[in-house]
Amino acid sequence: MLVDDRKLKILQAVIADYISTAQPIGSRTIAKKYKLGISSATIRNEMSDLEEMGYLEQPHTSAGRVPSERAYRLYVDRLMQIRNLPRKEQEIIIRELGERMDEIESIIRKTARILSQLTRYTSLVINSNLIDCRLRHIHFIQLDSNRLVAVIVTDNGIVKNTIIKTADTVTAEYLESLTRVANDKFGGMTIEELNHCIASEDYKKLAYRYSQLDSLIPMLMEGLSIVGGDDVYADGMSNLFNFPEYSDISKAKSLMEIIEEKEQLMDIIRRIGGKGVVVSIGSEMDNVYMKDCSLVTASCRVGGREIGRIGVIGPTRMEYDRVVAVLEFISGYITGMMDK
Amino acid sequence: MLVDDRKLKILQAVIADYISTAQPIGSRTIAKKYKLGISSATIRNEMSDLEEMGYLEQPHTSAGRVPSERAYRLYVDRLMQIRNLPRKEQEIIIRELGERMDEIESIIRKTARILSQLTRYTSLVINSNLIDCRLRHIHFIQLDSNRLVAVIVTDNGIVKNTIIKTADTVTAEYLESLTRVANDKFGGMTIEELNHCIASEDYKKLAYRYSQLDSLIPMLMEGLSIVGGDDVYADGMSNLFNFPEYSDISKAKSLMEIIEEKEQLMDIIRRIGGKGVVVSIGSEMDNVYMKDCSLVTASCRVGGREIGRIGVIGPTRMEYDRVVAVLEFISGYITGMMDK
DNA sequence: GTTAGCACTCTCCTTTAAGGAGTGCTAACC
DNA sequence: GGTTAGCACTCCTTAAAGGAGAGTGCTAAC
Q1: Closest nucleotide C1' to the C-alpha of A28
Q2: Closest CA to A149 of A178, A186, A106, A120
Q3: Mean pLDDT computed over A184-193
Q4: How far is the CA of A72 from the C1' of C28 (A)?
Q5: d(CA A6, CA A46)
Q6: pLDDT digit string (tens) for B271-312?
Q7: A43, A50, A118, B253: which could form a disulfide with A241 (CB 3.0–4.6 Å)?
Q8: How many CB atoms within 10 Å of residue A3?
Q9: What sign results for the dihedral spanned by CA atoms B17, B22, B26, B29?
Q10: SS3 letters for chain A?
């Protein structure tokens, strides 16, 4: 059977109505609300066809119909109007995120906040695995007699730091020479290369000369592995309760647990990948706990390299058009901010 | 009327039972479960007295009784046994938090995680206003032709960074001299002093010499104000659903909103203050939305200065003894780790 | 002062019934 | 042949009613 124009119109009506009301929708309602020029009986026949084709579902006989995942997919791919973010909301984002590049952590928090506030869904911010970024600079700063701060800057401007305890008092000269040698030796390396380098003979000789390099480098490595480890930050969890889908406590709990556990969520997001905005609907994510959710993510790239993703999670009955617009704008803004 | 020993025993029984079951408890249950050597009728009389004194409440006639806030207060202050954290849990904490001092952000996340996992309540980690900490070191690192990273280290080892765009290409010598001058000039200052200094004539002369200092310092200030701003990080929100108190969606939602909004929560925590572990019960916090919650917080201090607080939020029916033990241990551990 | 007994109260759960929304089918219409 | 009105049927939802159960307060006896 073919999905002709009239069927498409009816489907669109069902989806639009269900997204805004969360109520199964019947033929009579469509006939009344959306003037399609056909009677409820005709609509009934068409809806029956659409159900047969897998676009609509009935919670039970004698309830109205509800869009299936397949319908949402069709909607997202073909029916949805791409819209621009209203000027007002653009301004809010620019104001909140500011124009300066601060610490990653601060950007993450602000982004998650504004994203959940604008969309009214739960927001996610993922900072990606930066395993292939290069060391631009290492700098050691003395804190007190037996503590140093090691500050590591990567080539894409991410700064990480870690405190290192030293065996005995370190002189200013030693520190300076250490900084110089470390930069000479390790600057420009990726984490893998660094790892490799440490195992080499060459490094062992160096470690001998700078007796403290011995314990220093493993510590640095740990610091860098933090750079490498990807993590997800969530905000606007309470937004879940805006949706009757989560008026069932156990549903709300299990979704929140998935989000807080992070492991499974990261798995899903890694699998999704892709440039630009990606919409994942329900079982497409291949995870039992996510089967009633949709996840929309967008990537933030700097110099062709993905440095993070932002996303929104909510019921499959999601205002995809609005969410996509917000994500598109914010990811573009962040990319612009960091790449400039 | 006096709260004699027998009344105390009965009260303790009611509290203990209610904390573990969340069910109003009747006289017969107490007589059976807690062998106090008196009959249910006697207990009934005593409970009637305790109600009159404001320690017990009845959800409705012919329900059992429930401890009042006043009862919890009495329990926390006088009845509760201070217990040590089990060896096993201590080990978990030490293992999870590690022995190294990383970035504040990483410590915050880890702490919040372990705290919510161990207590099974929602955990909070607050990093305090560090308005009075001093600049130890400022360092500028070139990222590319028109961007610098400014790394700021405070005297207590907190590292913040911010990216600064420069008007035109900066030479290595300029950078070095800038670093030297900035350290000479601003090292050792608090944020207020820095603010004050910038307004002075002296600074204006300096800015003239380093033409870029002009836009630089305001940017640095902003970076430092991030250091100064206190913030709260929460984890284990889904734990709220462990408690029948929050099986009512609207209750759960409003508490989660308070936690996510942060403003009101920070207000409450600031008002609480105090060294060591502090228990705040329901209306003691003077906030409508918190009237059915308890909040237990502990301070983490370094060199006599509070650098943050950790806490746990849950229903007034809270396992105070266990929560206090966990908080005491973790706050002690963090303090030790940072102070060493 | 303590205890047993008992009537009374109030909630909670289950059952039952009515109401309502929406469908599918049939037959008539254009 | 597609479209529409009519109608019986299904199934959910909500409200009301009727125990069952738990716990109290009071009284009287110990």
Answers
A1: C22
A2: A178
A3: 82
A4: 38
A5: 8
A6: 998 889 999 999 999 999 999 999 999 999 887 788 899 999
A7: B253
A8: 15
A9: negative
A10: CCCCHHHHHHHHHHHHHHHHHCCCECHHHHHHHCCCCCCHHHHHHHHHHHHHCCCEECCCCCCCEEECHHHHHHHHHHHCCCCCCCHHHHHHHHHHHCCCCCCHHHHHHHHHHHHHHHHCCEEEEEECCCCCCEEEEEEEEEEECCEEEEEEEECCCCEEEEEEECCCCCCHHHHHHHHHHHHHHHCCCEHHHHHHHHHCHHHHHHHHHCCCHHHHHHHHHHHHHHHHCCEEEEECHHHHHHCHHHCCHHHHHHHHHHHHHCHHHHHHHHHHCCCCEEEEEHHHHCCHHHCCEEEEEEEEEECCEEEEEEEEEEECCCCHHHHHHHHHHHHHHHHHHHHC
Measured between CA atoms, the residue of chain A closest to residue B105 is A105
B22 in contact with nucleic chain C (CB within 7 A): no
- % of chain B residues with pLDDT over 90: 59
- Nearest CA to B148 out of B130, B162, B131 is that of B162
Chain A closest CA to B247's CA: distance in Å? 6
What is the distance in angstroms between the Cα of B18 and the nearest Cα belonging to chain A?
Answer: 22
Domains of chain A: 5-79 (1.10.10.10), 87-128+230-339 (3.30.450.40), 135-228 (3.30.390)
Kindly state the helix (H) or strand (E) to which residue B198 belongs, with its residue range: helix B191-199
Residues 318-337 on chain B lying near strand C, CB distance under 7 A: none
For B:204-243, CB contacts with A below 8 A are 219, 222-223, 226, 231, 235-238, 241
Q: What is the DSSP letter of B244?
A: G
Asked whether residue A2's C-beta has any atom of DNA/RNA strand D within 7 A, the reply is no
B108 Cβ contact partners less than 8 Å away, ≥ 6 residues apart = B125, B127, B233, B308
Q: Is the pLDDT of residue A95 over 60?
A: yes
Q: Give the C-alpha separation, A109 to A150, whole Å.
A: 24
**Ranges of residues in chain B whose predicted pLDDT is under 70:** 100-101, 130, 167-168, 204, 206-229, 340
